[in-house]
Amino acid sequence: MPASYAYLGPEGTFTEAALRTLPEAATRNLVPYVSVQSALDAVRVGEAEAAFVPIENSVEGGITTTLDELVAGTPLMIYREVLLSITFALLVRPGTKLADIKTVSAHPAAQPQVRNWLKANLPDAHWESAASNADAARLVQEGQYDAAFAGEFAAALYGLEVLESGIHDAENAQTRFVLVGRPARPAAPTGADKTSVVLWQRDDHPGGLRDLLGEFATRGINLMLLQSRPTGAGIGNYCFCIDAEGHISDRRVAEALMGLKRICLEVRFLGSYPRADVTAKDVSAPRPGTSDEEFVAASEWVARCQDGRF
Amino acid sequence: MPASYAYLGPEGTFTEAALRTLPEAATRNLVPYVSVQSALDAVRVGEAEAAFVPIENSVEGGITTTLDELVAGTPLMIYREVLLSITFALLVRPGTKLADIKTVSAHPAAQPQVRNWLKANLPDAHWESAASNADAARLVQEGQYDAAFAGEFAAALYGLEVLESGIHDAENAQTRFVLVGRPARPAAPTGADKTSVVLWQRDDHPGGLRDLLGEFATRGINLMLLQSRPTGAGIGNYCFCIDAEGHISDRRVAEALMGLKRICLEVRFLGSYPRADVTAKDVSAPRPGTSDEEFVAASEWVARCQDGRF
Amino acid sequence: MPASYAYLGPEGTFTEAALRTLPEAATRNLVPYVSVQSALDAVRVGEAEAAFVPIENSVEGGITTTLDELVAGTPLMIYREVLLSITFALLVRPGTKLADIKTVSAHPAAQPQVRNWLKANLPDAHWESAASNADAARLVQEGQYDAAFAGEFAAALYGLEVLESGIHDAENAQTRFVLVGRPARPAAPTGADKTSVVLWQRDDHPGGLRDLLGEFATRGINLMLLQSRPTGAGIGNYCFCIDAEGHISDRRVAEALMGLKRICLEVRFLGSYPRADVTAKDVSAPRPGTSDEEFVAASEWVARCQDGRF
Amino acid sequence: MPASYAYLGPEGTFTEAALRTLPEAATRNLVPYVSVQSALDAVRVGEAEAAFVPIENSVEGGITTTLDELVAGTPLMIYREVLLSITFALLVRPGTKLADIKTVSAHPAAQPQVRNWLKANLPDAHWESAASNADAARLVQEGQYDAAFAGEFAAALYGLEVLESGIHDAENAQTRFVLVGRPARPAAPTGADKTSVVLWQRDDHPGGLRDLLGEFATRGINLMLLQSRPTGAGIGNYCFCIDAEGHISDRRVAEALMGLKRICLEVRFLGSYPRADVTAKDVSAPRPGTSDEEFVAASEWVARCQDGRF
């Protein structure tokens, strides 16, 4: 029996579609879970090899339920990320025409993406929220609503027809998903990698956060995400989920993490993994003075000084 | 007819309870709105003098719907903040006993706060989510559910009894609310003030965010909130909602804002207003070199140098 | 009777030659003094309108006697600077040939500049130090030595002949001189200006000096000189003489000085004056965010925020 | 035959007195040299095991001839430092009384230290500069002058009497001397150490020097000396001689040096050696996050993360 990947279900959602873009997904048993928490718990207890969940999108930013699960509890690690462009199809029972549609349904998160389309094409349709876009499709199949906004791939699953596709109010609407597993050696660096950490400040003083970010900045490391999350110690107490360029095996990243470890109350390493947005050939060279070669040379030079040989 | 304050309804929620702690609320017409957006729009179009909405809580951090409304659209300003400790009461129809309760309801946000209490006291009760805690109370009144978790103050409104009060899983659970109006002169400084801004980076490079925070840090200004929000330009593009110590009429704050204005693509001023967590006597003195007196003295000294009189 | 300019004498030195490059020198009574201290004191007591003294050269760096005089005592200000390329002529009594020269003399500072030439051309000549190059020339005139290294212009003054000119071991040997007066309004900015200050740290802690330099760096201001000088409070206690790009009437410079004034124990303004090395057309534009226009715009924006008009 | 220590002569100077405070000096052949350069060259060519020269004093700051010799040429290393308080004795031929003194002599550097004493006690005495204080004493012995200012220890050497001792205008007048040898393993750390380096900037831009100092500051390392010296590439081009707290075997110092090595054009290590001003018990603990233990722990943590074991 193959190992299983838990994912945020139900079937037919964008999450499943994104997961299926991973080659290894074809050899795993893909199991939908009702929540991010339950999918990640399946990994923690060993029920699943990994979990595939959304972590960031272009409308909501960092997805807090996922971040909060990664920030707390038994440590987990991110091994892969997938970027999926989000465009909606309008799914109907076979034979339904645009003029027949009185009710439409989808997950509330879909609403900002289809609002303009609705106003232009179905100004009088009544909106009903569903627990997921796939659920909305199911309810259309069952005759409760006339049409659902969902990924085009959901049509076949629920015996529906695509009446319109490519619906998206915002250009560049994307969701980022991650494959999360139990801690193990990170994937080898590809030259276009990302490192995720959570930082807790030792104390709160002017410049505290600036100094944390300085550990990245002074080593020429760009940040891709900075999301504050409550620590649970009361309002105004935050930790910081950070995605930074580079791989923990890059010397500049390793030294930045060491610096953070020394000055933070706590640092949680969430993994180093290949970037989904670019490949190595598109990544600009490290800033002068921050390449692995320069780190090694500097380290050897100090060793020689310590020995008096120079 | 008195001016009206819009607030996130319905009646009987914590938002209303928080709003009523403001003395001026007694002289206004308090009008519930169905969403943060509609409450703020009421201010924008002049239908309400101000809107009162939640902006941060100890579980969720920054409340993104509120922040996103303040970040975009016609500029608004924050004039007051209120901190409310969140503890729940279990509300039932008169005569209901604990043993009678089969179904409980509340807004989903209440669930993490009452989970332990439920497990210990009503392990078999079925949870049904409601649109708000007040709605849950109304549904109990109408007989649909047996009990609702809501603020104690909601009991009278819906003819219910408090079967248990002071329910809260997490200590220090608090929500912060703000009173938002159209731009006008900020309230006078009290000595314990807070300034809110939104920052958009000019470009994205290593150290960019560190340098923005440096404008506060070098002037000894502590930050209370740093919440990234998507700019709408695609995944990974963020602006930053920041709450900083001090008032825009404090010289160190004014100069920090000027510095940000110069190096940011855009800065949106969201107001300077009294802090709800402390009063002036609890605020530590500005770091040496950052008091108003020192700013004034330095400015006068430079003016004298420019004139050659020293 | 014209106002007089004091200068570091005697007549016939590079200092006098440099002074005569200033157009206004033609209208002043130029008076040699025996020391930098006496020349500056002449200004302090009102005996001279200004003093012209060397302040930096490419071999010695900052000239400490001049810097120490400017750092302490009654405040003075720099109004002009002059750069002079230093090449030596070998001066002899008329008729003297190279083969006749047994003794050469000059100020000790000349020695590093003529050492190679001596080795190649007069390997057996005996060196005798003189109080100044001009004094060496005078002693040659009086027959005490056979040849003097001095500026070519000194030949006529002492009735000597130039046996060889253009002698200089180091390329780019230059000395910088300054015209120093009593405090008054600085010269108008030219677009290629320099500002000189002396900084005393408030206390000594890791990062103290870094933070002082940060006041320049965060405003895009380059430094041209950083020379530490003892404060007189015991070994290891230093103040810092700094030359920075720009004019005190530039907003970025004014704000940097204000910042320094606030965080330093003491700041002494030594003047803003035109650079001698470049003209306005060769100066690169201020870094984005640091131009006068951007400072003014930022200041006006904050004023509007303070008024609630935006 | 014992190894020899070269020192800046002649005999009877403060340099010799300072050298004799080193226990190992008793077992070496102490050889005076006429200049700092010749003493250091004796080490470079293997004629002497080490050279003992002044490097900083409370009046002049960094002694540029010594610094320039260490900055350029074949690398040398500092192994020890000695601090000597400078007070002068007035030395006379036996039998001379104060009223007999018409001429006094000393090295010009002594003048600022004895000026007030002279004014009060010998207002009419004529000052004659000598090449060294010891030379002045010799010239008194030979009858050329009536009195010399020199170290009390010079009296015996030249057959003179101490007429007055403890003469010093400035309190805390001290000179710092260093023992310089060929590169070898630095002395073991004592807990109160100092590390000397020379830094050349890669390029000159706003914030360049600030960033160099940041390598020390972010690791909690205090600086004791920052002396700019011309690079020889023309006026305004400087390298920086820096003395920093700590020993190259301290992790925070080693990492700071690595950082400098990466971002500087060149770094010259001048040694780590015990501080003469304090002992380990007077040195404050490293700033939190910068102790060796914390560096080691952070390094091990990153190694564990790289292996996925945490």
UniProtKB/TrEMBL annotation, chains A, B, C, D:
Catalytic activity: prephenate + H(+) = 3-phenylpyruvate + CO2 + H2O
Keyword field: Amino-acid biosynthesis, Aromatic amino acid biosynthesis, Lyase, Phenylalanine biosynthesis
Example of a GO MF term: prephenate dehydratase activity
EC number in record: 4.2.1.51
Domain ACT stretches: 197-274
Gene3D superfamilies linked: 3.30.70.260, Periplasmic binding protein-like II (3.40.190.10)
CDD domains: ACT_CM-PDT (cd04905), PBP2_Aa-PDT_like (cd13632)
Domain Prephenate dehydratase: 4-182
Pathway where it operates: Amino-acid biosynthesis; L-phenylalanine biosynthesis; phenylpyruvate from prephenate: step 1/1
Entry-linked InterPro entries: ACT-like_dom_sf, ACT_dom, Chor_mutase/pphenate_deHydtase, Preph_deHydtase, Preph_deHydtase_CS
PANTHER family: PREPHENATE DEHYDRATASE P PROTEIN, PREPHENATE DEHYDRATASE-RELATED
Name listed for the protein in its UniProt record: Prephenate dehydratase
Species assigned in the record: Streptomyces fuscus
Protein encoded by which gene: pheA
